[in-house]
Amino acid sequence: xxxxxxxxxxxxxxxxxxxxxxxxxxxxxxxxxxxxxxxxxxxxxxxxxxxxxxxxxxxxxxxxxxxxxxxxxxxxxxxxxxxxxxxxxxxxxxxxxxxxxxxxxxxxxxxxxxxxxxxxxxxxxxxxxxxxxxxxxxxxxxxxxxxxxxxxxxxxxxxxxxxxxxxxxxxxxxxxxxxxxxxxxxxxxxxxxxxxxxxxxxxxxxxxxxxxxxxxxxxxxxxxxxxxxxxxxxxxxxxxxxxxxxxxxxxxxxxxxxxxxxxxxxxxxxxxxxxxxxxxxxxxxxxxxxxxxxxxxxxxxxxxxxxxxxxxxxxxxxxxxxxxxxxxxxxxxxxxxxxxxxxxxxxxxxxxxxxxxxxxxxxxxxxxxxxxxxxxxxxxxxxxxxxxxxxxxxxxxxxxxxxxxxxxxxxxxxxxxxxxxxxxxxxxxxxxxxxxxxxxxxxxxxxxxxxxxxxxxxxxxxxxxxxxxxxxxxxxxxxxxxxxxxxxxxxxxxxxxxxxxxxxxxxxxxxxxxx
Length: 515
Ligand code: HXC
What we know:
The chain is an alpha/beta fold. It folds into two domains: 227 residues, 2-enoyl-CoA Hydratase, Chain A, domain 1; 196 residues, 2-enoyl-CoA Hydratase, Chain A, domain 1 (Alpha-Beta Complex), CATH 3.90.226.10. Helices cover 39% and strands 17% of the residues. Strands 10, 11, 12, 13, 14, 15, 16 and 17 form an eight-stranded mixed beta sheet that branches. Strands 1-2-3-4-5-7-9 form a seven-stranded mixed beta sheet, sandwiched between helices. A two-stranded parallel ribbon has the order 6-8. The model has no long low-confidence stretch (mean pLDDT 96).
């Protein structure tokens, strides 16, 4: 065959591959308000940067007349490209080919990409839209999933792994995204569950829609499985890009610094920010956004366990991770969900050399049977463990309450924080003055002619001694009590000072975080 004919054949095959399962199925995908696998890649990567790998792969199955039905690429588009100039590996499942279902070869393509991403130290992004295991293939498809899970674990902590769920994600298929670092879902067109509504109805007699069972809002608020619920696919893609901008390429690197022009770093408004009454709530996000670089805060898991706020930001152009108690929700108390949420975030930041900044205003752990029976002991221990093992630069600012075990857990000096600041409004004690007085002066209060008055008097006494940052500062548990207005300036200097921090935890195979 002459070269021009060979090239024409190649072009014909490329055209076929680009059509996936055919125009009719592409139209049907669009009608559902969804983009195709290739359109998603187009919007994700820098213009013209995508290089496809494995376009001509087809499945090998022969049962059920499958030999006669083959599509180039076999339901997943894989390759590499750049986002804002950075190398990224991406796979994008093509729902127009057997519903994006995972065959043996589909899995092989993803695994090959994961190997390349690990070898070359670049993030992996999965755009998931799949009916799950390719039913016609049986166990080889299940094996393919397991191969992916295994590699997800090998890659964990080596390269950032992000999963955007753009369609169905059911059965064991949910476990690959679950192992990755961040999940993003699209409202109304994506769902994740281990078993769908039909199985649920048969087994538990519950009637539930796919959306209620495993839609984006459900997982963003109730289960915490997804970190972001995005309005549409473009919003999800933009979130992926933003999220990546705070991360390095791999665990050996640090996230790139944005250029920063130093300016007046004082924030006088913070001196008048704290409510007079220590029981009055305020929104910690206001403190965060006043302290970090303008518009740089990207909240993660915003609608889940809102008593703790986590997210990425920049300080003088440097990427940092923030963990902050939220007095505006449940008074900022630590409970099981907030401890889990924060622990996972701390571990991500530590994996990828992202320094940690903690804002603390916490009245303690949430009491009650619900918490105890749901394992607040183990869950709280996760956060304690996560902070304790983190070797990245770690700074805490106590804005108000730091009570009880929560004082220790929230990145205290004792568990390895590098710099601990307190505002003059800080109260660092075993518990609030009212509760403390009731316990330690019980006899005096009950014996008094006016118990209420006695209680108030003792509360004041306890409060005068402990409801301040100075007892902790005397011991060096607090490095400096600072004016709120100076917070940003202090943090910029301290993070710069900690830039070359080196800490080596004792050699071990791996620790045993209480799961
Ligand atoms: C092969 C599949 C498929 C699958 C869908 N298709 N799922 N082909 N294996 N798992 C095909 C359909 O035959 C159809 O082909 C096309 O994809 C689109 O499917 P529709 O049903 O027409 O689309 P829709 O109405 O949007 O419904 C999508 C769906 C539904 C909800 C995903 O297809 C579905 O329920 N599929 C089965 C899901 C499932 O039970 N998967 C196994 C889960 S267990 P045509 O030719 O008409 O275009 C699992 C185990 C993993 O995944 C274990 C890992 C440990």
